[in-house]
Sequence to fold (343 residues):
Amino acid sequence: MTADKELMISIINMGSFKLGDFALKTGPLSPFYVDLRHMTSHPKVYNAVSKAIYKKMKDLNIKADTVCGVPYTAIPFASYICSHHEIPMLMRRKERKDYGTKKMVEGVINPGETCLVFEDVVVSGASIIDTVADLRKEGLVITDCITILDRLQGGQENLLKMGIKLHSLFTIKDLFSLYCSLYDVEESQIKKVHKRSLCRRTCCLEINQHVHSCQYSIDVTVRKCKDVFPPIDGSVKCSHGNIWGSKCHFNCSSNFELQGHHAVVCEEFSNEVAWSSAFPKCKKIPQKHVLPIKNLPCLKPHSPSDGTVVCDSNEKTMYPDGSVCQFFCYPGFLIENLLTQVH
Fold:
């Protein structure tokens, strides 16, 4: 038994391959699902797969200064390569945080170095493309990606357009062929899997010695939220307009403050797309007016030594604004400086 076959049997035995109707991130329902998220709960399988990834890397003679796993399922495999083979690892966030350093890529980054990307399952390659885009913004060079499973749904072609070669440990054709050899699978289920995932333009696949030919076409519908407009006395900037997945950030002009969420996302709710929250508004910041301070009364001035003070106010301790006080000296003494003090 080959090493790849042993890996696939381990993945099947831990329940990662399922038949049924499953909703994916994009597209219609899928007649099968491959879930490798819980592989870290199976250390033997996790170690075996990680070793196979590194072997693939060496067999292909891929040189990498750093490695990065597509968040989040592929991060443990990058961590294994980092810790066991001392290749520095970078970690890319799914979204930028509003606090701290606000970095999308964590780790020591040296522009011009080569980074090898890892993924667990590839469908269209969109997650890899997003990760590569952020890594390339940091000046890193990405030419290759190693994945555990390729679902054969256009990911390899999409990545080639981005200058990325996709290398898989095995494909869904390999995994499903093995699954059919281990379990009794109804003919109708085999056809559903063929039609949904194994057929690519025109194809002929052999499963359990049955030959099936198929053709398919793809209809693409662009899902959009309602139009977004900047608030009065403010502005808005969106990543992809009002298309599903777009994120819009709002700001207010000077002397105005935002009332509501600073950002909204075009998301799916009950098979419909809508903004994650109501659009915020800009509210004018009230101006603080400083009231003039009225002149306050003064305390009675102290009499000079060897003299006295006489004021024109009848008050004994506090003298109103405008009061006049005169200073006098006793006989034999002369007053210096001020003769009259006005309050």
